[in-house]
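Quick start: what a row looks like.
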Amino acid sequence: MRYPVRSRRSVHPVPQVVAGTVYAEKMENSFNNLAQQQPDESVRAAVAELHTQVADLVGRLKDSSPDDAADVAETLTQLTDEAAKPEPNKSTLRRLGQGIVTASKAVADVAVPVAGAVTAVLKVVGIAAL
């Protein structure tokens, strides 16, 4: 599922895997904040894809490891909030991205897509690599 990124007032639909959870509201609110503050469409699109991939990760962690699911959702929220700033702190984004990638290794099926999505976000904000 891809999040629609139509305008600065874009609404972030919550993927089914996290819909109705405490994680969903935080993730949705952080993305909507970014969509309102970040004029760069490429940043919004990259962060939307990251949200899709992390929602899959959180959905897989929520039953077996709820603390890890909460940590990943919170880290995604922090990364999204930082990316929404006019001049995001690159070292903060890199650190948060590394945290998400590390957590994704607990679920082998999503590790590569999550790492790719994190890398894409970092690239559009001017960070060459993790």
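That is the whole record. The two ends are 25 Å apart (CA to CA). Residues 1-11 have pLDDT under 50 and may be disordered.
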